Amino acid sequence: MAFPQTRMRRLRATAGLRGLVRETDVRAAQLVLPLFVTEAGRAGDESPPTRPPGRAGRQPIATMPGVDRLSLSAVVEEAQEAAALDIPAVMLFGLPAEKDAHGSGAWDQEGVVQLATRAIKQAVPELLVITDVCLCEYTSHGHCGVLREDGTVDNDASLELLAQTAVSHARAGADIVAPSDMMDGRVAAIRAELDGEGFAQTPILAYSAKFASAFYGPFREAADSAPAFGDRRGYQMDPANGREAVREALLDVQEGADMVMVKPALAYGDLIRAVKRATRLPVAAYNVSGEYAMVKAAAAAGYLDERATVLEILTSLRRAGADTIITYHAKDAARWLQ
Question: Structural domain tally of the chain?
Answer without folding.
Answer: 1
